[in-house]
Design goal:
Layout lengths: L5 E2 L12 H19 L26 E7 L5 E6 L2 H6 L3 H6 L1 H6 L3 H17 L3 E8 L5 E12 L5 E9 L1 H23 L2 E8 L5 E6 L1 H7 L8 E2 L1 H6 L5 H14 L4 E7 L5 E8 L3 E3 L2 E10 L1 H24 L1 E7 L4 E5 L1 H6 L4 H7 L3 H5 L4 H17 L4 E8 L2 E13 L5 E10 L1 H51 L8 H31 L8 E3 L1 H18 L3 E6 L6 E3 L1 H17 L6 E9 L2 E8 L22 H4 L7 H12 L2 E7 L3 E9 L4 E2 L2 E2 L6
Amino acid sequence: MAGEGNRRRKAASAEPDDGAELRHLRARVATLESKLTEAGISLSDDPDDPDSLGILGVVDNLPCDVFRRVLHPDGTITYPYVSWQAMSLFGFETSEIRQRPENFVGAMHPEDQADWRRAIEESARDLTPFDHEHRFINPDGKIVWAHALAIPRRMENGDVVWDGVAFNVTERKGLEVLLRDTRQELADIAANVPGDVYRRYLRPDGRITFSLVSSNIAEMLGMSPEVDEQDGGPFVDSIAPNDRPRWWAAVEQSIAKRQRFDIEFRIHLPDGETKWFRSITSPPRAQGDSFFWDGVTIDISTQKRAESALQQSEALLRHGAKLAGLGYWVWDEIEERSTYCSAELATLHGLTPAQYLERFPTHEAVLSVVHSDDREAYDQAVHQGEKDGSGYEVELRVLIGDEYRFLREISECVHDDRGRLVQTYGTLQDITAEKEAEARLRMAIEEAELASRSKSEFLANMSHELRTPLNAIMGFSELMTLEALGPIGNPSYSEYARDIFNSAEHLLSIINDILDLSKLDAERYDLDVEVVDLAASIRESVRVIKPRARVSRQTVEVDIEADAPPVLANTRAVKQVLMNLLSNAVKFTPDHGALTIRLVSEEGGLCVEVADTGVGISPEDLPHIFDPFIQVDSSMVRRHEGTGLGLALAKSLSERMGVELTIESEIGKGTVARLRFPRSKAVENGGLHGRAVD
């Protein structure tokens, strides 16, 4: 670490005084002393004897600081000798170190002093060599790294003396820091690369080993990052069995052709998950009998899932296009030519995609097969779509083979970042069958409308023709019943005349319903909008229907809300609707039954409600009660005459007036008919509450 002294100490032996290294060093010192004695130079063991220091002058020219350091029993440290190199190496005068050793020790970097002191104490205690790196802050304020090596010996007076050397290793430490920072930077880069950075070896025996694996993939695969040699067998075993032969083949091909290794494969992870990876390396390099690759393995699982989803989407699109007969194309707006067409589009013309692009490379070529009546509109649609960038949708006839077929073409425009139109793409669908079906349907509708008008006109004419003799029959039979011209001889004739009158009246009622319904169908039934007093219309209708109700001993209850406003409608049509509803209620209610008619205000307007306790209508018949000529099939109904036009006529008249008619019913419990007038139809305080909609 930058803030710690780097201490390298050799392990102390069990008996420090007899250690092999120490014995070797003492033997060398004894040899040196012998040679110095022969040269007339004495060497004293007394560190305070100045004469004993003369021998150290032989080392003044060494590229290091030679020193003698003494640790006294009281814990003080002195330097009896420091070579002159201390100044050049560390910036401290020799005399300063000798005379004021505490200043020299105090100049040591504060972060290294405690560790340096521990190294001194351990070396003195165990008499192990002192080997330590630490920093000094020289008088100029610069930080200098020193590497000190010294051998200790204990004196009889208790002093511990080290003779040693100190090297200036500032430059080396700078390089080490640079190297460490560079390695850390590379490690950080490798850790942040979206994949595994590795060095992989293929050994002569066929084994795969790794000397480096970045932390992310190592953690994923349970491997150890940055090892001298790691067995890659588990990694190879984790490769999906179906992909393993391809992986080995890629390894062999990379070696044989000296080309880079690049392959996609799956790995089964320890947690059971399977992921896709892509491994890319530099070309292999030889190292002895081995080969190694430097490369990266990238997790491409997300990409593979996206590719799979895209392939499925494209397959579905192709399948859907095939089912729908939908072809698609791409047009390059820069080069002004077709660049792509689908197989469906080409097949439509009986061509291959390549043949289609060759035959229709330009807009003019496409325009040449468009029907002459559609050519101008199609050309304008294309150019307008390109001009405003919105694309176009157009139907046109195109000559395919020897016939013209209807096609529907839809396009979209693509712009670049500058808003420039660069591409147009679209679809083309054969809608000939659809157009033919539309033509047949249109013809059928026209024929049905013609038949309906003919029927309505026929019924209207026939109704008029039938009403003329019926009026005569009714008139003469009524005169006979009243004996206006004198008594009838036989009473039976009078009864026969009443039957004739009643039958003619019933037939006229049916003819009137048919005539009214025909007029409504032919839109010849005129309804003048006027102010209608609903309360009065209800009372008049009840007065007409009451005699028939009394015959069946039915009760009729009328409930009209006070101050109910009049409405905009048609008086005759309102009465006709009310009479049809009341007649049905009387007709289909058993003897002693009850009828109720109400006029109430609702949030949305006014409601006329006609309720009875009759036989009711089944759920399956209820949806058809407004159909013309439809009668509900029940024993009760069969006892009464009718054409089934009453409710159909009431529904049509209501709709023409802008009024809603609904019916609710339940078998055995009766029926409720509701005629709802919207609030816009109400006339309040002498004026319209809202604008009437006819």
